[in-house]
TrEMBL record:
Localization terms from the record: Cytoplasm
Protein encoded by which gene: Faim
Organism: Chloroceryle aenea (American pygmy kingfisher)
Protein's GO biological process: apoptotic process; negative regulation of extrinsic apoptotic signaling pathway via death domain receptors
Listed name of the protein: Fas apoptotic inhibitory molecule 1
Keyword list, A-Z: Apoptosis, Cytoplasm
Annotated Pfam families: FAIM1
Domain of life: Eukaryota
InterPro entries: FAIM1, FAIM1_dom_sf
């Protein structure tokens, strides 16, 4: 016959395995959001029996609500260095099925990302074995590199403008030149160490 101690150990093992399993099955949605300071991962756990809601941003717990009698609703939080507003909407589809949608700054994720393509340029490059992600916010001319807002110096040149900044000991410049076509507008080009960097599509 098993001793009481062995039974307790067995129960604890089952309980911890069950709570780990329960935790895994509550994860209902994962989104990746590209912002100027980097790509952020948003994870959402929703316990449809307990009403539990947990929001993680880049692996860090932002919101935890254990018992919620209302299973539908929304959770609002911020993402990234610029504290961008994000909202997860929880809607009942049918019976015990739920739909989870993410909004960024009041727009659906798809609309937000489409708008971002128009208002930002992103370049990904490698310098001295280190990977860099450079983002230009066209409306403000702010430049971000690997999550940090860069110190920049702008100057007017014959064919447009140049925005100068440094990444490590590498001199960088974003050239803004008119395309000559109204629909295309201004073309932004990143030049690092006199080499043009192709734009990345995220």
């Amino acid at each position: 016959m098993a001793s009481r101690e062995e039974i307790t150990v067995c129960e604890d093992e089952v309980r911890s395995r069950y709570s780990y399993l329960e935790k895994m099955t509550d994860l209902v949605a994962v989104w990746e959001v590209a912002l100027s300071d980097g790509v952020h991962k948003i994870e959402f756990e929703h316990g449809t029996t307990s009403g539990k809601r947990v929001v993680y941003v880049d692996g860090k717990e932002e919101i935890r609500k254990e018992w919620m009698f209302k299973l539908v609703g929304k959770e609002t939080f911020t993402v990234g260095a610029a504290k961008t507003k994000a909202t997860i909407n929880i809607d009942a589809v049918s019976g015990f099925a739920y739909e989870y949608t993410l909004e960024i700054n009041g727009k659906s994720l798809k609309k937000y990302m489409e708008n971002r393509l128009k208002t930002t340029n992103t370049w990904i490059l490698s310098l001295g074995g280190t990977d860099y992600r450079v983002v230009l916010e066209k409306d403000t001319m702010d430049v971000w590199c690997n999550g940090q807002k860069m110190e920049t110096a702008g100057e007017f040149v014959e064919d447009g403008t140049e925005t100068h900044f440094s990444v490590g000991d590498h001199s960088c410049c974003i050239k803004a030149v008119s395309s000559g076509k109204r629909k295309e507008g201004i073309i932004h080009t990143l030049i690092v160490n006199d080499r043009e960097i192709p734009e990345a599509v995220e």
